[in-house]
Design a protein that fits this description.
The complex is a heterodimer of chains A (452) and B (107). Chain A has twelve helices and 13 strands. Chain A is an alpha+beta fold and 452 residues long. Chain A has a seven-stranded antiparallel β-sheet. A three-stranded antiparallel β-sheet of chain A has the order 1-3-2. In chain A, strands 4-6-5 form a three-stranded antiparallel β-sheet, sandwiched between helices. With 107 residues, chain B is an alpha+beta fold. Chain B is built from four helices and three strands. Chain B starts with 10 loop residues before the first helix and ends in a 6-residue tail after the last helix. At the A-B interface, α2 and α3 of A face α3 of B.
Chain lengths: 452, 107
Amino acid sequence: MREKKRRLELISFYDHTGMEARFAQMARKGWLIEKMSNFLWTYRKIEPQELHFTVSYFPKASEFDPAPSQEQQRFFDFCRETGWQPVCTWFQMQVFCNAQENPTPVNTEPELEVEALHKACKVSFLRSYRILFVLSLLLSLMFFSSLVSDTLRLIASPAALTFGACSLILLVQCSAELLSYGRWHKRAKKAAQYGMFLDTPSTHGIQKICLTLVVLWLVYWLVNVALAGNCVMAWSALFGMLWVTSAVMAAGAVKQALKKARAPSTLNRALTAAAAFAVSLVLMGTAVRVGVYLVSDLPKGELLFETQAPLTLSDLLKTGGGQTLVTVSSSHSLLLSRLAVTEGPGFGQGEAFDLPTMHYELYGTTAPAVYDFCKGQLKRLIVLSAHWKGAMRQEEAAPWGAQEAWRLVLQDGTPANTWLLCYADRLVRLELDWQPTAQQMQCVCKTLGDRN
Amino acid sequence: MPREKFKTLTEQMFYILLCLQRECQGVDVLELARNMTQGRVNIGSGTLYDLLEQFDAQGFIRQTKTQGRRRSYIITEKDREMLEKEYRRLLAQAADYERVLGKGNDT
């Protein structure tokens, strides 16, 4: 029979009422809390029994302390006098249990309890959640901005969509925690003036929903990588997970090792942060080194990841000379694939404004609903690119070999050299800085149009 | 309106300071207060720890000796004055009660 059990407990740092109830419930089932951490809490096997628990907050304690300080030990001595045995500590939290039937609580002055809890929260919980809130707010705003101005790129990129969605979920989580604590603290201070204790609120429901959504998004990302991705996506996903896991594990290992070696908490904190940074730096350097090695080993002209531009300026203009710069980006998801190519004058080209430029985006999908959605979005995005000072006008599709052809027309009636070409299973957004000839339109159809 | 800290004393604060009229170890206050009040006042061990720290910081009590982790305290003159003030306030409250509801019941 196993002696230890590990559980993911979705209980907030300040929710001592919830923790005490959970520990008592577990003790009735024969499990005593042994160790708490950011991920899993460890319980050890005991005889099932009725135990009372108290979670007390000691603001001066730190997760980096090698052992409970002298002051904490004094606090433990006081608690032992009334039958409260220290069970475990975590950050500023101290957990005690008492086997007596009606023990005198550890805290009998509500004002002091609220004060100690708030001081502990200011040291850890509030500081980290405020930083996370600001970060997630910025990321969410960027995500919304991309959702409005670059919708299709997001849908075609499972990583970008997952990251954006998770930023949003993190924002909701942080907001819920900060609001919940803020409301409770205000009410608890008022109640304490009248000598009343106020139970701490639980955000278990919201935490569970957020965690479920994050897991679903990660599954979505991994499924897309497995089924629709290329080796770049697969390696990027793997590398990303390795990076995060390594940094967290390195930080945890260094922290525990220094605690065992009784290093002072300030030194432990500094070295733990340095370890996480160093591991991240090494992994980043390794990735760059590997990338450089792979690229330098390729024969000239060959691309590393098979993403070549299907249509180039030389195809259209039949020009042989001149160095142009081609940038290609591609992304794939189960819903949509996207290829974006920009070609223009290379670096060091004199009289660059005389040289032609071209930009096109190719969207492929097999789902009719997604196709229609993409078509609508592309029309909107093209008009958005002209700062809403234009409209899309349908034109003859036959020269392009397409089913539909749309052109951007500016407010003053001038047609822009921006088209939306609708083929059977793909959409093409094409931007040129010249009016193409019929021959060039046929070339576009041949290279970017329907496969069949 | 929030009560200014230590301007008036809660029951537990009052009895902690009362127990420290004579020098004693901090932890012993738990038993002393319980005996003094025939079990009516039970001070939490965590509350006692916090209040001793705060009283010491405010100068209401002072440490007299340290034996390992155990510290002994005694009240200071500042505390005697505050206790006296609190006692007078409680007497005044009791007197008001008797005047309105007690012996003067013929109102």
